Amino acid sequence: xxxxxxxxxxxxxxxxxxxxxxxxxxxxxxxxxxxxxxxxxxxxxxxxxxxxxxxxxxxxxxxxxxxxxxxxxxxxxxxxxxxxxxxxxxxxxxxxxxxxxxxxxxxxxxxxxxxxxxxxxxxxxxxxxxxxxxxxxxxxxxxxxxxxxxxxxxxxxxxxxxxxxxxxxxxxxxxxxxxxxxxxxxxxxxxxxxxxxxxxxxxxxxxxxxxxxxxxxxxxxxxxxxxxxxxxxxxxxxxxxxxxxxxxxxxxxxxxxxxxxxxxxxxxxxxxxxxxxxxxxxxxxxxxxxxxxxxxxxxxxxxxxxxxxxxxxxxxxxxxxxxxxxxxxxxxxxxxxxxxxxxxxxxxxxxxxxxxxxxxxxxxxxxxxxxxxxxxxxxxxxxxxxxxxxxxxxxxxxxxxxxxxxxxxxxxxxxxxxxxxxxxxxxxxxxxxxxxxxxxxxxxxxxxxxxxxxxxxxxxxxxxxxxxxxxxxxxxxxxxxxxxxxxxxxxxxxxxxxxxxxxxxxxxxxxxxxxxxxxxxxxxxxxxxxxxxxxxxxxxxxxxxxxxxxxxxxxxxxxxxxxxxxxxxxxxxxxxxxxxxxxxxxxxxxxxxxxxxxxxxxxxxxxxxxxxxxxxxxxxxxxxxxxxxxxxxxxxxxxxxxxxxxxxxxxxxxxxxxxxxxxxxxxxxxxxxxxxxxxxxxxxxxxxxxxxxxxxxxxxxxxxxxxxxxxxxxxxxxxxxxxxxxxxxxxxxxxxxxxxxxxxxxxxxxxxxxxxxxxxxxxxxxxxxxxxxxxxxxxxxxxxxxxxxxxxxxxxxxxxxxxxxxxxxxx
Length: 811
Ligand SMILES: Cc1cc2nc3c(=O)[nH]c(=O)nc-3n(C[C@H](O)[C@H](O)[C@H](O)COP(=O)(O)OP(=O)(O)OC[C@H]3O[C@@H](n4cnc5c(N)ncnc54)[C@H](O)[C@@H]3O)c2cc1C
Fold this sequence. Notes:
Layout: E1 4-10, H1 14-25, E2 31-34, E3 50-51, H2 58-78, E4 89-93, H3 96-111, E5 117-119, H4 121-127, E6 138-142, E7 146-147, H5 150-163, E8 167-169, E9 174-179, E10 185-189, E11 192-201, H6 207-212, E12 221-230, H7 234-243, E13 249-252, E14 257-262, E15 265-270, E16 277-278, H8 296-309, E17 318-328, E18 335-338, E19 345-349, H9 354-371, H10 392-404, H11 428-433, E20 436-441, E21 444-450, H12 469-481, E22 484-487, E23 492-497, H13 501-508, E24 519-525, E25 531-541, E26 544-549, H14 554-563, E27 572-575, E28 581-586, H15 590-597, E29 612-617, E30 620-625, E31 634-639, H16 644-655, E32 661-662, H17 665-673, H18 709-718, E33 722-729, E34 741-744, E35 747-758, E36 763-771, E37 783-787, E38 790-797
Parallel strand pairs: 1-2, 1-11, 2-8, 4-13, 11-19, 22-32
Antiparallel strand pairs: 3-7, 4-6, 5-6, 9-10, 10-11, 12-15, 12-16, 12-17, 13-14, 14-15, 18-19, 20-21, 22-28, 23-26, 23-27, 24-25, 25-26, 28-31, 29-30, 30-31, 33-36, 33-38, 34-35, 34-37, 35-36, 37-38
Bound molecules: flavin-adenine dinucleotide.
Residues 10-16, 34-37, 41-44, 46-51, 173-174, 202-206, 210, 225, 227, 322, 324-326, 349, 351-356 line the site of flavin-adenine dinucleotide (FAD).
């Protein structure tokens, strides 16, 4: 066993072996993998081996495609067969809503270049003869689906890695990890210690325990999962003989079942409602190559539906029932990347579909370790999307919810209830009492919209406009014609202090830093010149700045900020979290309201657009930004939580004479559309440059050196290849949700990032990206945007529909 190495990968499941292979493929060959037992000894050996490319997140879909394409390469390099069966598969719809879902999935696939096709049930039956047509109304065909041998595939990764120079130590258990003062790791195993520059936790079922060895609690939980294997079935044999083909894979949403051919019989698994976590607090170290006791009663409701939908199964003998555990993160996507605050400690865990996702996880993690960047937009898998708020108990509830909803539709306006309320602000009960429908903003309860008196404060979930439509319209109109108030506690807030604070921020950000009492908006870039943040920065004094950004990205951003902190102690950065909460008032009467309760002059001369002031509001010490995401005259007022009720009450009282009304996040997001404002993680993501995202005016190429400057300069000089644009859509009863294809004549030329109905201008709006040559075609009438399978006419607009001269913000 080596005593020194560049990387120790912990865990010889499919994920660890993929990470090992990709490190060697990309050039790091002094790498080892440590496995406490045999390879595949966690969940990998008993997987059903199914793979597919579709995922709710198109970026994850892309990486799933990569994984499937990789298997041929692996077989060639390793000489080890993965037993690939590329059968293709269908998703069966049993309701109109599910058909809408399939249409959406097909549309998303279009701009990713995926070859998905809506087919009839009878066409599906030709490829899967055991289905009973009467239960279904349509299907989506995906040719890139199939199954493989999980053990062979894991060994193929391992062999290919070994051929490239990696070493694998089996029957070697990591027991402790200690970071040395230089930042390397002593990985202490039962066979000796290895000093490594980097460690990767790919511990699968034991990922939590490998996290606890370094003092972190990863939000993963294992669930029991069952599938059945039948005896040989004559229907299967007959189909194979008649067509020379295997039965395809089938996903039956109604039965919450997946099924495919295995041998001459069938394999059938389910994500049952009566689901059960396995070892919720601690995974036993003596669990090995073993299965859990089958419990058919628990899955009998789903099996009954399956036996009705696929009647031939009723006559098939059950050869074996597999029950095994595997891990999930709260949202069901993997946890990948460097862990904030732990130098050179990486994770690749919570991978619930290792045979669809393992390749992409290995590739992006290896890119990240070697190049400092994952090379793809992997926000959907980044471990930094969870913070300390994702506790063991929260994770337990969310994972069970996610498991039992695996084959359920998540509607765009659907908020899931498990583990809520988790974090609340002091206004929570007041908001509920006024009819607020709350949403879960990464753990924090946030008002989405307010149901009028007498109406139920509850979303009716739908792909189309729903019961919140009129209420949100009224909220938007209240802001545009008078004044509205909303809670913005869910923004991330940071305090940056010290003699080096300005230089530090200026090195991280593309804009120049504000003078005392002023605010700037600024993107943040990575070295490749791609957007990794979008902030509002206010200067409170020469050595004190406040910064506001996306709450979901707080850990992601703190990881970056801390990585770039100078080590001379000249700068300190703190994520304030809920130490500051906020209210925003907006609309032409907003100043009148503030003036009644502010302890300072807030006239337009004394407190200009983009000014920052510390002042008393309703006797409470507040920090006030004169900006509003509504694009209207407005103020963001920040205070410590103990003052929030008092400030809110005073603002409501002061606003009564101007007809002040509550508004929620949905109205806020609708109003920013009519200003063409983009939003983080939709329009602004690490795949876009600042000029293509239309943020060029915030990039000061001539200022001091900043991260991403050269790449940004190249983007500017070469001209962006694609551009963020806005559309007015001739929509019917549904607006875009994001990820719809943009058609021009008969070609898909781009994709939608977000949109919705803009109530003040009374139009359905959307934003998205198109090749730059299309971004000026405002009058050619050839754009269409696909909404729920229907191509709707769209007109490209360059100026915001509301207040194009930006006078309202400055009034
Ligand atoms: C019944 C069932 C059916 C499934 N069907 C499918 C399917 O059809 N398609 C699909 O894609 N996925 C499927 N899965 C999920 C799939 O099995 C997992 O996604 C995959 O196995 C995860 O791999 P992993 O490498 O992350 O974890 P694991 O396979 O759990 O590997 C982790 C490894 O780390 C080792 N380890 C942990 N801690 C230490 C330590 N301290 N020192 C040394 N070694 C350590 C363990 O021994 C283990 O070998 C299924 C799972 C089950 C249970």
